[in-house]
UniProtKB/TrEMBL annotation:
Database matches in Gene3D superfamilies: lambda repressor-like DNA-binding domains
Lineage: Bacteria, Pseudomonadati, Pseudomonadota, Betaproteobacteria, Burkholderiales
Cited InterPro entries: Cro/C1-type_HTH, Lambda_DNA-bd_dom_sf
GO molecular function: DNA binding
Domain HTH cro/C1-type: 8-61
Name of the featured protein: HTH cro/C1-type domain-containing protein
Organism superkingdom: Bacteria
Amino acid sequence: MSLVSQCRDMREARGKTLTEIGRVLGMASQNLSAILLGKKDSRASTLEALAAALDAEWVLVPNERAQEVRQVLEGKGSGPDRSARSAVDIFLDQE
């Protein structure tokens, strides 16, 4: 999924209008629309500002880790078992 399409999806998910985001960026909503539709290229600084306006940030993920990151973002990834007792707790219980 491209960065631009992620920004477009996040804008919709956050319920932000093109006008609202454009106002924050100091950009006409028509120009913002063209960027989000992939019809116009944009500078990285504009995309960074767009991400910030959406309360998000860019993250560069190596291709070999991309699938794992997608799974975590979808809530399907594995992470630490927060309910498991730590090694310190086990050690302290042995005393």
